[in-house]
From TrEMBL:
<feature type="binding site">
    <location>
        <position position="23"/>
    </location>
    <ligand>
        <name>NAD(+)</name>
    </ligand>
</feature>
<protein>
    <recommendedName>
        <fullName>L-lactate dehydrogenase</fullName>
        <ecNumber>1.1.1.27</ecNumber>
    </recommendedName>
</protein>
<keyword id="KW-0560">Oxidoreductase</keyword>
<feature type="binding site">
    <location>
        <position position="178"/>
    </location>
    <ligand>
        <name>beta-D-fructose 1,6-bisphosphate</name>
    </ligand>
</feature>
<feature type="active site" description="Proton acceptor">
    <location>
        <position position="185"/>
    </location>
</feature>
<feature type="binding site">
    <location>
        <position position="92"/>
    </location>
    <ligand>
        <name>substrate</name>
    </ligand>
</feature>
<keyword id="KW-0597">Phosphoprotein</keyword>
<feature type="binding site">
    <location>
        <begin position="130"/>
        <end position="133"/>
    </location>
    <ligand>
        <name>substrate</name>
    </ligand>
</feature>
<feature type="binding site">
    <location>
        <position position="163"/>
    </location>
    <ligand>
        <name>beta-D-fructose 1,6-bisphosphate</name>
    </ligand>
</feature>
<comment type="similarity">
    <text>Belongs to the LDH/MDH superfamily. LDH family.</text>
</comment>
<keyword id="KW-0520">NAD</keyword>
<feature type="binding site">
    <location>
        <position position="153"/>
    </location>
    <ligand>
        <name>NAD(+)</name>
    </ligand>
</feature>
<comment type="pathway">
    <text>Fermentation; pyruvate fermentation to lactate; (S)-lactate from pyruvate: step 1/1.</text>
</comment>
<feature type="binding site">
    <location>
        <position position="98"/>
    </location>
    <ligand>
        <name>substrate</name>
    </ligand>
</feature>
<dbReference type="InterPro" id="IPR022383">
    <property type="entry name" value="Lactate/malate_DH_C"/>
</dbReference>
<feature type="binding site">
    <location>
        <position position="111"/>
    </location>
    <ligand>
        <name>NAD(+)</name>
    </ligand>
</feature>
<dbReference type="GO" id="GO:0004459">
    <property type="term" value="F:L-lactate dehydrogenase (NAD+) activity"/>
</dbReference>
Amino acid sequence: MATARSGPRIGTAKVSIVGAGSVGAAVAYACLLRGTANTIALFDTNAARVRAEVLDLSHGTQFTPACRIEGSDDVAVTAKSDLVVITAGAKQQPGQSRLDLAAANVAITQSVTPRLLAESPDAVLLFVSNPVDIVTAAAIAISGVDDGRIFGSGTVLDSGRLRYLIAEGAGVAIENTHAFIVGEHGDSELALWSGATVGGIPIDSYTVDGRVVFDDRTRAKIFHEVVRSAYEIIQGKGATNLAIGLSTARIVEAVLRDQRRVLPVSSLQTGTHGVRDVCLSLPTIVDAGGADRVLEVPLSDDELAGLAESAATLRNVQKSLGL
């Protein structure tokens, strides 16, 4: 991990987004609404699509914080970026797992990463393309950049889904729930119930009228809904895009504003909880340099075992792809 981290880039930041599909457009829209950057650049090989998205976004800039929108099918549009969000890749189809996308999207990652770094040598690269843990590992391997400047969106959205469902069950605001999903952003992920709280109360002690709200059955149901929700959304409307756009914008702000916010992003693991040489999500300090220190939060024995299994799943996929 690098010892020196870059400073915040408030007010002058350029964010580039690779891929102008439904996810890339949602990321751009969320960043525009939130005033995340003063320049947003879209890069996509589909020239007509990227021009249409630039026009659509630009026509709304009267109603948002000041921001310049640009785009092109030439990667040079991303030059001098402070942060690049990569959403490009094959689209997950109904019934298809994220890991099924691995080979195609790793090839895209291996092609685009060196080109992006050539245009913006000091940029932070944030991968959103699925399977995000595998493509993040591929980007680190092809570039040799292993100091946290390349990382993935990981389980930030999954954790948001978990917190939403806990808040619904507890009848409190989502801001007053705290819980993490860790491991793979996918079917082998796990919820850290041992550290989950509602208003500071451990989740297994949270009661209403003397009744424990989150018993084992309820927790299992919530976790199942977290894991399967993306599949349900894809089945219903073809893609998940709005929530990932918002969660990605939140990660981008943590970098550009050097917030040192703890988020479960996917980064190259170097020994926390015994996990090494694989990219997966654990609570991590995110600052101006990208993914910084991984926090060694207490885990139960079952959670440690689940994390090891998730790491093994990802490691096997990495090996099958020569990573």
